[in-house]
Amino acid sequence: MDKPVKHFLTLLDIPQADLHGIIKRASELKQNPELVTSMPRKTLGLIFEKSSTRTRVAFEVAMNQMDGRSLFLTTGDSQLGRGEPIEDMARVLSRMVDVLAIRTFEHSKLERFAEFSSVPIINALSDDFHPCQLLADLQAYFEHRGDISGKRVAWIGDGNNMCHSYINAARLFDFELAIACPPGFEPNEALVAANADRVQVVSDPGEAALGADLVVTDVWASMGQEAEQADRMHSFSEYQVNQALMDKAATDALFMHCLPAHRGEEVSAEVIDGPASVVWDEAENRMHSQKALLEYLLTQ
Ligand code: CP
Ligand code: NVA
């Protein structure tokens, strides 16, 4: 019987031990890029309905370095933009490419793609989750500080796709997650409730940051929320990660941001460009961890 296709729509799709293995392998590939598995004739299809710098470049460079190919499609240059059903796109594309990474709005679109695809589907960001970024963030934490298990992580700002992926990571990697959001911008209630033993939602950023080993934030208005930008600037004005907030965290606390960042909004220049910040390592790790993910999905 055929093996079931492995997808990566959220962190929960991959067993915890295997996620650890992917992150360890990513660090190994960072040190020794020549060890990467060669995948000639393998093609990664990238379908992006939203903008990207890191995710697209990391996947394309990863495939290049693995001797494979990548194929970038946007809504405008495929029939998806003209209403071809996702179920049909999934069946057709998966007869031609070996793996698909999709960046879209509704998470349910990814689930429909996965249901009808005979090749792995990777979530390259949806409105609800951004699991590829968490591989890179966790890799950066392990590289700088060792095991994240038992540590305290503070999420400051919007209860968005990144925040949801941090909630999943807290469960899988056994850390405490304190989330500070303005009222009305909390993460998904059911997801928080399912992880209530390690996730706490508060409104005071200082309370969340207190004693944190890692402080993380993200933009106040995500892609697709451009029309809410002005209102959000107002609602989030007290949620900036600045030095005063970092001073409440542990003395050796790290700062992370998935990027792109807006200095002077969700983070001060002093923090993102300061000694606690590991944002460039996070960004670089996108490529290493995506190589390790592609190896995992395509070779097992
Ligand atoms: N962090 C991240 O996903 O960046 P891009 O939007 O540039 O891909
Ligand atoms: N929350 C942001 C992350 C960008 C990488 C967004 O969805 O736009």
Would you give an account of this structure?
With about 300 residues, the protein is α/β, with parallel strands linked by helices. The protein folds into two domains: about 10-130 and about 285-300, Aspartate/ornithine carbamoyltransferase (Rossmann fold, 3-Layer(aba) Sandwich); about 135-280, 3-Layer(aba) Sandwich (Rossmann fold). The chain contains twelve helices and nine strands. The protein has helices at about 15-30, 55-65, 85-95, 105-115, 130-145, 160-175, 190-195, 205-210, 230-235, 245, 270, 280-300; strands spanning about 45-50, 70-75, 100-105, 120-125, 150-155, 175-180, 200, 215, 255. The strands form two sheets. It has a five-stranded parallel β-sheet. Strands 2-1-3-4 form a four-stranded parallel β-sheet, with helices on both faces. Helix 1 crosses helix 12. The model has no long low-confidence stretch (mean pLDDT about 95). It binds phosphoric acid mono(formamide)ester and norvaline (NVA). Phosphoric acid mono(formamide)ester binds next to helix 2.
